[in-house]
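Q: What would this chain look like folded?
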Amino acid sequence: MNQNTHEIIYSKNLDTPTPIASVTKLMTAMVVLDAKLNLAEEVSITDMDVDYLKGTSSRLPVGTTMTREDLLNLALIASENRAASALATHYPGGKQRFIQDMNAKAASLGMMNTHFEDSTGLNSNNVSTAMDLARMVHAAYQYPTIRQITTTSDYDLNVHRRQPLHFHNTNALVRESSNSSWEIGLSKTGYISEAGRCLVMQATIAGEPLILVLLDSVGKLTRIGDAKRIKKWMEHNSNTLSSRNDGRGDIVLTGLSMSKTLGEEAN
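A: My prediction, written as structure tokens:
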């Protein structure tokens, strides 16, 4: 989607609801920042933040204390689930109020096919559509803090140990951006088995600010490969783009089949 004009350049299954995994954490960050909570306040990881649903691991033991700003960084950069959970646990009114505010924020953004039940994305009942997530990425991009954090490649956390804990961005394109032609303004990955591999980004490609939403990828590298193919395709065809609706709810490119072109490049 062109971020300036909101024109859909290419879409597939645009309005199909699907689990969104840790892409959820962009909404988590917006709710925290909207509440204007003290980011320097220290909060602790509690047993309420342990993932008993999926059994995912964490490098943040129960009792670990850090600032709310640290939690935001770990949730958005490293997709740390206990960090995202703790942001909701230590929200005025607790987790229940936090989830209510997530859904209220989604409704205010026109995300009518979106529903949240937790702040991490581990719950597969967190569902959205590609179109709704494009709206969410556009909204999140308006927050300088979210832009800055999600495009940070690495983050060190001092937790009173000999060596700080080192976390890296879950999006390899962000980690490589200093040595590549990518101009990424916002990024978030996601994965649970029900959602597949997901990636949403704001990036400038061929001089245009674009929003990319890639959901339900099977392979670990497919979402990155698809993003690279889209970038290459956009750069090669930026002067000839025009779009039309194919009558089935999908947008295709006049005179070209983007899916065929991308498939040929993949081979």
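Residues 78 and 169 are 5 Å apart (CA to CA).
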